[in-house]
Design a protein that fits this description.
Layout: H1 2-14, H2 21-44, E1 50-52, E2 57-59, H3 62-71, H4 74-81, H5 84-87, H6 95-99
Antiparallel strand pairs: 1-2
C-alpha cells in the first residue's frame, strides 16, 4: 500500500492540471482511504511492543511505549496524515499546492 500511495501522490502532483474533475474526485476518495489506513496505523503504534536489541528486553508498559513512539517516528506519522492540501487550499495555488502532495511520500519509509 505504501508504494501505491506514493505513486499516486507523485502522479497527482505532477499532472494535477491535466486531470478531469472526475479523476480529481476519485483521487480525493482514494486519498481519504489511504489517510484513514495510516491514521489507524498511527494509533496502533502506541500499543506495539518495543524490542531493545542490545539488552534483548521487550518493553510492554504503555507509558514507556508512548514515550518511545513520541520520541521516534510519531512526528513523521503525524505529518503524513495531516491534510495539508485541504488546510492550505486557499493559501497556496499552482505548483505550491501540488507540492503539498509530495509530503505524502514520507509514507514510503513505513515499508522498510
Amino acid at each position: 500500500m505504501n508504494f501505491s500511495s506514493t505513486f499516486q501522490y507523485s502522479y497527482y502532483s505532477a499532472f494535477f492540471d491535466s486531470l478531469s474533475d472526475s479523476e480529481k474526485l476519485t483521487f480525493k476518495y482514494i486519498d481519504h482511504f489511504y489517510t484513514f489506513i495510516f491514521l489507524v496505523d498511527l494509533i496502533m503504534q502506541f500499543f506495539v511492543e518495543h524490542h531493545y536489541s542490545t539488552t534483548n528486553v521487550v518493553e510492554r508498559d504503555l507509558k514507556k511505549l508512548f514515550m518511545i513512539y513520541v520520541r521516534g517516528d510519531f512526528l513523521l506519522d503525524v505529518i503524513t496524515v495531516t491534510p495539508f492540501s485541504f488546510l492550505l487550499k486557499n493559501v497556496l495555488s499552482g505548483v505550491g499546492y501540488r507540492l503539498l502532495f509530495l509530503i505524502q511520500i514520507l509514507r514510503l519509509r513505513k515499508g522498510f
